[in-house]
Write a structure and sequence with these properties.
Elements: E1 4-8, H1 16-23, H2 38-43, H3 50-63, H4 72-83, E2 87-91, H5 96-106, E3 113-115, H6 123-133, E4 141-145, H7 148-156, E5 160-164, H8 171-174, E6 181-183, H9 187-194
Parallel strand pairs: 1-2, 1-4, 2-3, 4-5, 5-6
Helix pairs in contact: 1-3, 4-9
Length: 197
């Protein structure tokens, strides 16, 4: 029974729309969310590339982490899962300090753990160490991510994966990693996870 969920920090907890708002210097707002991926948003912005956005993102996360606001529809659904007894974790490699500041600002009690182990070797070793540290068996957890690299590393260590449509890569590209599930909106997460009970 998979009663644990690890959420990717960038591109999932902090979605593509929030990233664009921060990079463009806009205040974090609770706008009506369309759940678009970064490539979909950038298709309408002729003067920006994914590389440009990710470079600015890295600097902003370090200097102004509170410029990023978590995806509120996701937060609402995570609260429901938490109340139903699911263990929730946030995986934030290379951004743990920023992740902790954002969680403290917006909802400090949501996650059972926030890990950001940066491996000298590889992502899967890092995620694997998180599982070991938290005493989680791969069969007992799902990994929610909107990046191809995140989904691929989870699959390599035999974790069930959930790809979503509001991250750094398009859902079409994410399907190439053969996720266990693919969802378009945060509301679908409840259906997927409650099927595991």
């Amino acid at each position: 029974m998979a009663n644990k969920l690890i959420i990717d920090f960038l591109g999932t907890f902090i979605d593509a729309q929030a990233i664009i708002q921060a990079v463009e210097g806009q205040s974090p707002v609770d706008a009506q969310h369309t759940c678009l991926s970064l490539p979909e948003i950038l298709a309408a912005a002729e003067d920006k590339s994914k590389t440009h956005v990710l470079k600015k993102l890295s600097r902003l996360l370090k200097d102004k982490p509170l410029a990023f606001k978590p995806l509120q529809p996701l937060i609402q659904n995570l609260k429901i899962l938490k109340n139903a007894g699911f263990q929730l974790g946030l995986f934030a490699p290379r951004a743990i300090a920023s992740a902790k500041k954002i969680c403290a600002e917006y909802d400090s009690n949501l996650f059972d753990f926030i890990e950001g182990d940066v491996s000298f070797f590889s992502g899967e070793a890092s995620l694997g160490r998180v599982l070991k540290k938290q005493a989680i068996k791969p069969a007992d957890v799902f990994y929610l991510s909107g990046t191809m690299s995140g989904l691929a590393l989870a699959r390599q260590i035999k974790i069930n994966t959930i790809a979503h449509g509001w991250g750094l890569d398009s859902l079409e590209d994410l399907q190439k990693t053969r996720p266990t599930y693919a969802i378009v909106s945060p509301g679908e997460l409840l259906t997927v996870m409650t099927e595991q009970l």
